Amino acid sequence: MSFVPYDRPVRAAFIGLGRIYDLNVRAYVGNPDVEVVALVDPDEERRARRQSDWPAARVFASAAELAASGIGVDAAEVLLPVPLHADGVSELLSFGWHVNMQKPMCNDLAEARRLLDAAQASGRVLRVMENYLFYEPLRKLKAVAESGEIGEVSGYHMKMTGSGLGGWEVPISSFLPQLEQMQRGRGILVFDDGWHKLSTALWLFGPVREVRAWIGNTPVGPGVDIDAPSTIVWEHESGVRGVWDITLAMDMYLRSDYYTNDERWEITGTKGYARVNRCTGRGIQQPSLEVYADGVLRAYHALDDDWASSFRDSGRHWLRWLHTGEGPLSWSGEEAVDVLRFALAAYASSAAGGTGVNPAQLG
Ligand SMILES: NC(=O)c1ccc[n+]([C@@H]2O[C@H](COP(=O)([O-])OP(=O)(O)OC[C@H]3O[C@@H](n4cnc5c(N)ncnc54)[C@H](O)[C@@H]3O)[C@@H](O)[C@H]2O)c1
Question: What does each C-alpha distance from 55 to 16, 49, 58 come to in angstroms?
């Protein structure tokens, strides 16, 4: 793909105007790198509501109508329901638009191949945005690990508890695609949210050579199965081992401005440890990053630990990238396939009773 950087504001279209638009839009507001030219959603009420953010943009019920309108579009900000990712993004690439899509990229390797082929055929850039890589406490965690402050890295531990009470309102219409995903064996904690967690492992410690998993299931209502308790362990090619444990606490109230995930990330080194205490929700109300080494505990009190800022910064990175073509995309389409392989290896391992699976060897 030969990419020519833009020397003018990128003409962008939002495709999907649902719940997560509220955070993704933060990268676009007041950003001279971009001009929002169109908004697309079949829901008329949402089109009308979001247009007040962008009075100069045209609104459409479908991307095909926008493509036929003659309006010039350079890049699509794709906020579609997950089951539509493979078909929807292939279509947008075929219109000749660069794509910044949400995770999970898609459900299996055949769909991933289709998306990469569509990007190649159109000569456009496919990005699968990973906002967690832009969350300041996690960026600082990475910097601490790489600085040698806690010695050589000897292990990585992530914890997540999905709680049932608190947080922002998630319309039932936003939840329905998740039910569809559950029926396809792609659960909301391991696959949907897990995409982010597995991404952080690849980002911090590189390729993974073996994954072992025990994926559980808890029915919480008619047709609603939550994929917890689950435990995933893995080993990176570097030898660093990681573990992610996922639990469910349906009756636990968690204060959150967004979703109700109580999360932690901890890197253990030969001399100490560094831990991010929270992210999406306001679980542990201590400084978001703590670093222990040489008998001293240091706490970071002034990091931008609002989860929404990671969307702003991830989106700004993309819109800047379109003007330079330089630096990592975080993630490129190919890198996102590594995340997918990691998740698929966990499913394969769990189905086989927890045996080790090499993600690179999945067919
Ligand atoms: N990065 C994160 O942490 C994070 C968090 C939540 C959601 N997401 C992702 O964001 C995406 C959207 O999630 P959401 O919660 O906003 O979902 P949502 O259901 O609230 O919004 C999706 C919107 O897409 C619209 N839509 C449906 N079909 C369409 C079509 N053919 N063309 C255009 N629009 C169409 C719907 O009407 C709806 O308004 C998903 O991929 C989800 O995984 C990411």
Answer: 17, 11, 8
Average pLDDT over residues 220-225: 91
* Alpha carbon distances (Å) from 19 to 54, 174, 209: 17, 7, 36
Rounded Cα distance, 12 and 181, in Å: 28
Place of tokens 């247009």: 51
Would you say 82 and 18 are in contact if contact means Cβ atoms under 8 Å apart? no
Instruction: Say yes or no: CB of residue 194 within 6 Å of ligand 1.
Output: no
Question: Residues near 320 by Cβ (< 8 Å), separated by ≥ 6?
Answer: 33
- What is the percentage of the chain residues whose pLDDT exceeds 70? 100
69 pLDDT more than 90: yes
What is the DSSP code (8-state) at residue 36?
A: E
Q: Is the whole model's pTM more than 0.85, yes or no?
A: yes
Ligand 1 atom at minimum distance from 80 CA: 24
Residue ranges of alpha helices (H) inside the chain are 21-24, 44-51, 63-68, 85-94, 109-122, 136-147, 172-183, 194-205, 307-324, 333-351
Our answer on whether the CB atom of 102 is closer than 6 Å to any ligand 1 atom is yes
Q: Reply yes or no on whether the pLDDT at 2 is more than 80.
A: no
Instruction: Report the C-alpha gap between 358 and 343 in whole angstroms.
Output: 11
Between helix 333-351 and helix 194-205 the angle, nearest 10°, is 110
Ligand 1 center from residue 8 Cα (angstroms): 28
**What pLDDT is attached to residue 90?**
98
Q: Are 50 and 14 in contact (CB under 8 A)?
A: yes
- Cα 154 to Cα 241: distance, rounded to the nearest angstrom: 7
Strand arrangement of the beta sheet that strand 296-300 belongs to: 208-215, 230-236, 241-253, 153-165, 261-269, 272-276, 289-293, 296-300
Crossing angle of helices 194-205 and 136-147, rounded to 10°: 30
Q: What is the mean pLDDT of the chain?
A: 97
Distance 22 CA to ligand 1 centre (A): 11
User: Is the shortest distance between the CB of 84 and ligand 1 below 6 Å?
Assistant: yes
